[in-house]
Fold:
Amino acid sequence: MEFRIQKKNFLRGLAMVQTIVERRSTIPILSNTLLETDRKGITLTATDLETAIRGHFPASVTLEGKVSVSARKLFEIVRELPESEIHLTKRENHWITLSCQKSVFNIAGINPEEFPPLPKFTEEDFRPFPIRELREMIERTVFAASTEESRYNLNGVFFKELNIDGQPTIRMVATDGHRLSLIDKTGLQFSNLEKGVIIPKKGLLEIKRLIGDGGQREEEQEDLVYLSLSENNFVAKNRGIVVLSRLIEGEFPDYDSVIPKENDKKITLSRDRFTACLKRVSIMASEKGEGLVFQIQNGSMAVSSSTQDFGDAKEEIDVEYTGEDLAVGFNGRYLLDALAVMETEEVVFELKDSATAGLLRPAGEKGHLCLVMPMKL
Amino acid sequence: MEFRIQKKNFLRGLAMVQTIVERRSTIPILSNTLLETDRKGITLTATDLETAIRGHFPASVTLEGKVSVSARKLFEIVRELPESEIHLTKRENHWITLSCQKSVFNIAGINPEEFPPLPKFTEEDFRPFPIRELREMIERTVFAASTEESRYNLNGVFFKELNIDGQPTIRMVATDGHRLSLIDKTGLQFSNLEKGVIIPKKGLLEIKRLIGDGGQREEEQEDLVYLSLSENNFVAKNRGIVVLSRLIEGEFPDYDSVIPKENDKKITLSRDRFTACLKRVSIMASEKGEGLVFQIQNGSMAVSSSTQDFGDAKEEIDVEYTGEDLAVGFNGRYLLDALAVMETEEVVFELKDSATAGLLRPAGEKGHLCLVMPMKL
Structure:
């Protein structure tokens, strides 16, 4: 194997695989990236056996072949090289020699045949999906997924197709048992998703990286990403790069029965004002529970906290409310996480009593809600 | 005690004390800041018993007094408050109540009489010193001080007055036993520094924070900081804020005898080029020793490294050199640290043989040198 590649193209490929490879894997080949050539360039692959990424980058190939070397070391080396052409050749015993201007690196590799095969996927299975909607759905749900290994069926986002009032709808839901976030997008379709699948958090975050944060380019809003389900994997393709995420096997809980339908005490609040208040009062919440007390009465909501070591805090917000008095406890961090992914100027905080979950919705925007379980006062 | 203070002034004071207070101190009062009032405002003090800081900030005081509360909690609270006036009053049992617009915080305190007294210093002892020179001397030496607790006499920078060719000179030297950095500034004077003192690293970093990084204001280059030695403390004062640093008791080693005087093999290098080469080759140095091999021969210097797990690296730099061949080992990290504090376009690398320390000097600039001990090849 022998090829020449511009530093910037190689660096882009190596940056792509860094978040997939495991730093301290017990299986050495999983720290490596697989490098394969074809006539047009090189393909880089990395996998942790659950999430995989694969991308093609232009290079001038003089001898085809494949090698596998440490993804981190190769990235560190290429990052420090001058903006110039890099020459890479395969040596004996799976070593490679990389040279660039006056630098020469000999890098130990592992037999590329040991590299685990990726799940198969066919180009025909891909369906287009709007990037902007996918990004928004991931951002608004993934934070609520559980990170506890024992609750493996909650370690991802439930992705499902359904029909709401005759409209085809795509739904994403995530919960860690203490809070939940749900978003619906009507007018979008997929196939074979009526039962729903659970996509792991890491895979979704890789897909979000794949489609970008949308910050830079206005025109990107019309772009499409290509999605498919194959061999128990969720697959996303964008601009020649493919991310594969192995679905979580297990039942997603019956989230719908958890969402209260009769929270009749509705309080409309400025999202910024509510966020600032929660940040302040949370400082005095105990570090474990982060419990805040919400007292609602005619025209005002008081938020308070106390911690044995440092003291207490209380803040009032004027609100339009005329119902009966209510006191209820919630985790301040969960409410802040939910407020952070909403974009409307105002939010609606929907409550019932001290034993019922609270709901937070962006005011005037259908299809998104965050639920927070109540805490004992 | 009762006063009103603008958020921005209070925040500036609380930010000032954050790096001094110990996060997990076994002595609770050391996590606190002492807050004292006078007719013009408030004085904030923090200490870890080795480094202390004290500053005055404008406030409208209606009742004088003093309190001591958690520096971290108070900072977190004030940081989240709106840009508005803060009202603070002392309550019973050393508690304070802080309010701002619609937020009220009750914060537990500790009897301020328990706060350790600061070392005494008198205004008359302060001597002016140019800020720019002090900043440069700290930056160019402090990185070489030891962080090993057992080598307490190397945990700081040696600060000394001497006479070089009839010129009064101020010197700073730091070493960790493996490398050393020395800087002389002629034409500057101090008093009672002939024997020299050892100022701890933490104290010097606080003084550097006190005088700023000089990035923003051109006119600051003429500013003066006021320094003194009193009660075994090095004291620096700038714009109403005082930093006190308890001197390290102990002998600073005889550094002068360690600096080789006969390194006749002199190689002039572009600082950027040398830095880039060392960064690249260091990637393949073993993570413990970071040893690089330097081979010098007619017209070229080769830098190489190797690690059992990942492979090896080698890079050549064209240099003007016509002496005998030489191979010597040095720690790449130490050379990079030294190059990072130099500012000239070129540096001179001075060597003798494989058993002699190497010297690095900014080309054409007197008074600064970095020494690196050789490593076995």
